Amino acid sequence: MQQAKVPPLGKRAAENRLLLGLLLAPAAIFLFVFLVVPMFGLFRASFYEGNQPLGGVGFSLQHYEKFLLDGYYLSVLAETIGFGLASAFVSLVIGFPVGYSLARLPPEKRRWRLIAVILPLTLSLVVVVFGWLVVLGRNGLLNSLLIGFGLIDRPHQLLFNRTAVLVVLVQQFLPFMILSVMSVVAQINPVLEQAAANLRANRFTTFRRVVLPLAMPGILSGLTLVFILTASAFITPRLIGGPRIQMIGSLIYQQVLTILNWPFAAAMAFILLIITLAVTWVANATLAVRLDSEKSGHAN
Amino acid sequence: MKRRSFLKLAAASTATFVAPAVVRAQSKRFDGVTLNINGYGGDYDRLTMEYIAKPLEQRSGLKVNIQASESTSAVAQALASRNNPPFDILLTDSPIMPQLIKADLIDPISPKDLPSLAKLLPNVREFGDYGIPFLTNAIILTYNSKLVKEPVTSYADLKSPDLKGHVGMLSPANSGGVLALIALAESNGGSLDNIEPGLKALTSMRESIATISPATVTIQQLLEQEEIWAAPFFDGRIYASRNRGKPLASVIPKEGIYAVNNYWNPVKGSKKRDAVFAYIEQAVSDEAIGHMVEFFRYAPCTDVKVSPDVAKDVVVYGDNRKYVKPVDWSKVAQFRGDWIERFDKAMR
Q1: Domain limits at B48?
Q2: What does DSSP assign to residue A160?
Q3: Which of A178, A265, B92, B236 could covalently link to A256 via disulfide, CB atoms 3.0 to 4.6 Å apart?
Q4: Which chain B residues are closer than 8 Å to A159 by Cβ?
Q5: Predicted ipTM?
Q6: Same domain for B294 and B280
């Protein structure tokens, strides 16, 4: 009986690679045309001379110098990074328990809770922020509740400060942290926690030495995502923050749409991009170091 | 009657009934044509649809698609797609006009092109044959008469201890904010060439300022929520809130009245020139302008007559127009970017 001819391994691998390339090609072309090419255009625009929106020529570092040598812009950048870190940390503290509990629920109990987590993401950001203006207003829900419970005797100003901006930012981006944590924790076998309990580890020790290290990829993803989203926010600081709370997203928006100084806006956008890429790199590097040390620990 | 004869008679009868409708439909001048314009949103767009777009569609079949956005955003879109403009008509106001003209984004229209322009008031066109003005918005002061004990009469009163943390300001990214800054500068010895006295005056009232917003509707919402109690604001918006029962007083400030015109601008490169002219003709009609004045109490830029009941609420109606302080918009366009940056630094 004749056996079917099997192509050699090398040829099969080449065919697989070709097939993979063909499957990825449409997305890659789309990303190249609509992301990479415009990014290059934006990068080039950041070096144009002058402040005109179109027809820029020449090469100049004036816009980067204007940003990096002015204490005002650096303070706005620092505030933006500060908000990013604070929002990421608060989202982690609130989001991790929620993500963990969702991951441990059976699917039928998880469904509606998951919808409740995702639902805010379906609303327009502007609508959400205007809603917060009403909730946090002097005659808003929160002041009314505080007066009703006798905690305060007259309305307080809850808007136009850093706390209000942080609260609204966390509310907007908390679902991303919850979903990141949930997806990773769902892959941690509950048997590991039971085994730790069998070995007389209390819940905190189990969390610290079993759950947390295994959930670290999800935590780092969530932190990175929330940081990046917060750093690029501009609607929330504009409406909730008041005159003294300025973030770089608002300044970029202003330069593009009001002042029409597109080269300077492009320079600010790239500085923000470098910051966010740096944060992403640090997060990935931290994860890589951790994974390497775990592998070497297992090998020993 | 034989079947063939019956069928012929039925076909002829149907054609007789249908033909007038078909002929009527085909006779509408702008069937299948849609104009794209930007709008300010809210009541502006509602009134534009009601008194400009709908009558036009009924008469000529012309459809109007309004995209609500900040006018600067619409300008940025038009700049980015000059060869295929997203709008046929741009709605903007005075501070943005020099930029549009310099960028060669809009076409001029003279009374020779459109005789209805004879309805415009003398000297109301600030930019030659560019832009067709239709409403004038004045910046005055407002305060909540229920919460503020001492009436506000000038910008300087905004520093009052009673108003600490209760004043709202429009940023110079908004036309109203530009006017307020100019008012503060000129009343403190400054000018368009020297805005520093205005910035100093603003810095001196920092403790009073609760929030600064580039969006008119945000300030209006905060005034109505009583989150802020006083602000330099547009006369028509103050009237609209008062009409909704809010206790907001309108005050002509001691520093004087500053105002902007709103303009319809035909976009260069639009392939619907006749339709654009038809729109503008309806836009400056007594029907459209009269209803807008009645609702907003903004001053008309045409010779439309309004009832005394309406006229008494319009700040710069008729002869009162002479009290509007002149502004060199070319200088504003030249310096505005710098003003915005210095304003942001002063307020931080």
Answers
A1: 27-136+260-319
A2: S
A3: A265
A4: 210-211, 227
A5: 0.77
A6: yes
